[in-house]
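Here is one chain, start to finish.
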Amino acid sequence: MAKITITKENLLTPAEFKALLEQTVARSSTLDDMLGLLRELVAYEDKYNMGSDVFYARFMRGEMGDDLPFIMWAGQYELYLEAKQEIASQLPKVLVAV
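Its structure:
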């Protein structure tokens, strides 16, 4: 994920901040998002000793309950699947351009 750090030494005007934010969002990529999601998923997998795919299937069948950490994990996994699909759909376009 892209990150903007503002300190008292580099205070920005509202217009400068908006421009910087727009540039940062434009540079952010689905791949960056996916890597961040993977880090979060690995943390859940380590904590609960279960792969995200197995967890998600069990969660969707109602076997895991509705505790907040499980809801968060399921949401992160869904975001990961969406990012993975986005990357897969973009690969043919990238390979043709190369």
